[in-house]
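FIELD: query
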Amino acid sequence: MIKTFRGRLTDDSQNRVRLSTKKGKIGYKILKFEIMPQLPHSVQQVSVVQVFKVDQSANISGTVDFSDGNLLAAAIGYFGTFSDPQQTSITMFEQEIFNQDIYVTHVDVKSNQACNYYLELEVVSLTDNAAAVSTLRDIRLNPQVGA
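FIELD: result
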């Protein structure tokens, strides 16, 4: 089964995608991640949209760090007026399975514009052991998960 999520993020903001269940026996993998400016071709915009396993509200940043174990996907979009070239670079860590809520952040490093995102997640059934490992890993990485 595939679940889809979409939303709009203003500059320097975060959306929480609610996925967690009581037993944690449902996992997810990112299949598709796309971004698009809210106002195409109206202004020059450089959007950095990232998907994390843990809340980033205290640390929303336009810096992308692939060594961050909480990072699930990152996209950078260079958007401009009609005469400007438009480019998007997207990286997803597709083999990463998670069973807790995820967080999507956005920073426009050029013009403070909003950006849309679209996520497709594959639903994966987890064994009791896999669910326990995933949940414990998330608690270790983010102590607030267990609170």
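FIELD: remark
Residues 128-141 form the longest helix (14 residues).
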